[in-house]
Design brief:
By secondary structure, this protein is of the alpha+beta class. The protein contains 2 helices and 5 strands. The longest helix is centred in the first third of the chain and has 7 residues. The relative contact order is 0.32.
Length: 82
């Protein structure tokens, strides 16, 4: 599973599909809400007992810039959309 919270149409827990990216996860949650801060999305990932924060700028990714931010999700990742 992965989790998506904040300003998305349908926040919650979702099953993690093989090779699912952040953009695909946002789509699965119904897309960004009207007032979402699209350039300040964060992915919280636990790794080795520590939490790591990864940045995701929705506007840049969908315009073809910074595509490396569209990472493949791992189990228990939490996407935070402010």
């Amino acid at each position: 599973n992965f989790y998506i919270i904040g300003t998305v149409t349908q926040p919650g827990t979702y099953p993690l599909m093989k090779d699912m990216t952040v953009l695909q996860a946002i789509s699965l949650a119904g897309g960004l809400g009207e007032w979402a801060d699209a350039d300040s999305i964060r992915i919280i990932r636990k790794s080795g007992g520590k939490e790591k924060i990864l940045h995701f700028d929705y506007k840049k990714v969908i315009s073809g810039k910074n595509l490396e931010q569209n990472i493949v999700l791992q189990p228990n990742d939490t996407i935070v959309v402010p």
